Structure formats: structure tokens, C-alpha cells
Amino acid sequence: MGWRSEFIQTMGEGGPASLIFDGVRVPHRNILGEIGQGFTLGMEWIGKGRYTIPSHAIGIAERVLQMAIDYANTRETFGAKIGTNQAIQWMIADSETELEAARWLVLRSAWTVDQGLDPRHASSMGKLYGAGMVNRVVDRVLQIHGGMGYTRELPIERWYRQVRLYRIFEGTDEMQRLIISRDLLRGYTKIGGHLA
Ligand SMILES: Cc1cc2nc3c(=O)[nH]c(=O)nc-3n(C[C@H](O)[C@H](O)[C@H](O)COP(=O)(O)OP(=O)(O)OC[C@H]3O[C@@H](n4cnc5c(N)ncnc54)[C@H](O)[C@@H]3O)c2cc1C
User: Fold this and answer.
1) What separation in Å is there between the alpha carbon of 173 and the centre of ligand 1?
2) Which of 27, 30, 68, 146 could be cross-linked to 141 through a Cys-Cys bond (beta carbons 3.0 to 4.6 Å apart)?
3) Which atom of ligand 1 has the smallest separation from the CA of 174?
4) ∠ at Cα 91 (70, 129), nearest 5°?
5) Protein residue with its CA nearest to atom 3 in ligand 1
6) Are 128 and 172 in contact (CB under 8 A)?
7) 157 an active-site residue?
């Protein structure tokens, strides 16, 4: 939908692919971790790196929000800049507020990684919120650009397609919610986590 075209632009080809391992023998010295523990190891690794996804989202949201601000200060309809309309101002305000909230969630999960603490709960919250945030921000930015936002003359429609993936890969929204609620329901973490 979006990610593939990004790869085509930079690498010439790409996109999701199937990997099939048939009759592969791995030498003992190349085994990572313990036999039968690969899934646990993989989940640990993903948990530690998960906050990088919403950090991409923050960069994208900053870029497109600035585009919306510039456009709101330039585009005129009925003799006035569109940024003088409360409807536009509120979209900008909501976007900046959500962007800042995502930034703090990401900083917190990066902090838990730095401290050597279990980052999975904080990272799931950052991933869930950051992925939703960038989708909402890009949608508003497209709306602020009106018909121009929908065309391929601006990069917004590409971001609109690309950021949809953020709610799916490295664990879907539903999986993040499952992790967050399970941690609380089973008492693995308390409300507010390490900072409470
Ligand atoms: C462009 C792209 C790039 C990708 N890159 C990578 C990569 O680099 N590495 C990698 O490992 N994977 C990658 N993926 C795979 C991605 O992580 C998976 O698509 C994602 O985890 C969802 O798995 P699935 O597609 O099998 O959906 P499914 O597991 O079939 O889920 C379908 C729907 O059901 C929901 N669902 C499933 N189980 C439950 C449940 N127990 N409770 C509630 N809801 C549930 C899901 O949230 C989803 O909404 C990529 C995918 C895409 C599209």
C-alpha cells in the first residue's frame, strides 16, 4: 500500500516477501540462545526495539504538521487565510498535543531500555499511541490541504498510505492492547509503571 513504493524508490524493488527454509541445518555454534527458546528471545528483542516505531511516527508527524501550518498561513479562501478558521486551528492544536504526548511515551520507553528495566509495557503504550497519533495527524493534515492533499503533487497522500502500516507491523494495535491489559490484569506491572 505504501511501504512497498517507498522501497521501490530507494532500493529498486521490495515489499513483503515469503521466506521458506527447507531442510536447512544450522551448525551448533550459530545457534542464538537456547534451542526451543527462539520465540521468547525474539519477543525480548522486539520488546526492546519497539519504541523505534513510534519514534519514526513522531518524525513524520512533525514534518507533515509543519506543512499544514505553512499551508494554513498561506492558502486563502473567501479573502482570509484558512488558518484564521477555528476548525483549522483546532486540528493543528489537537495534532501538536497528541504529538507531544507520543514524544513523552517514547522517551519513557527509551528510558526503560536505558535503565535495563523490562520495556515491554511502556513500549506497547508508546507503539499503540504513536501509531494512532500519526494516522490521525496525517489525516488532519490532508484535510487542511483540501483537494491538493489528495493529489500526488504533494507527498501527503503517500504518508497517508504509509503510516497505516504503523498500526499493523511490529505487533498490531490489538496485540499492544492485549499486552498492556494483560500486564495490569495479571499484576505484572502497576498502573503508571516504574514512574508511579
Ligand atoms: C509492509 C509490511 C512489512 C512487514 N514487515 C515485517 C518485518 O519486517 N518483520 C516481521 O516479522 N513482520 C513484518 N510484517 C508482518 C506484520 O508484523 C504482520 O502482518 C502483523 O504482525 C499482523 O500479523 P498478520 O498479518 O498475520 O495478521 P493476523 O495475525 O492474521 O491478524 C489479523 C487481525 O486479527 C487481529 N488478531 C489476531 N489475533 C488476535 C487476538 N488474539 N486478539 C485480538 N485480535 C487479534 C489482528 O490484530 C489483526 O487485526 C510486515 C507486514 C507488512 C504489511
Assistant:
1) 10
2) 68
3) 47
4) 110
5) 16
6) no
7) no
Residue located nearest, by CA, to atom 35 of ligand 1: 174
For the stretch 42-53, pLDDT in tens is 888 888 889 999
Size of the chain in residues: 196
Query: Each residue of 81-116: pLDDT tens digit?
Result: 999 999 999 999 999 999 999 999 999 999 999 999
State the cell numbers at 189: 506491572
Q: What CATH number was assigned to the domain covering residues 52-186?
A: 1.20.140.10
Q: Is the CB of 23 under 6 A from ligand 1?
A: no
Q: What is the pTM of this model?
A: 0.89
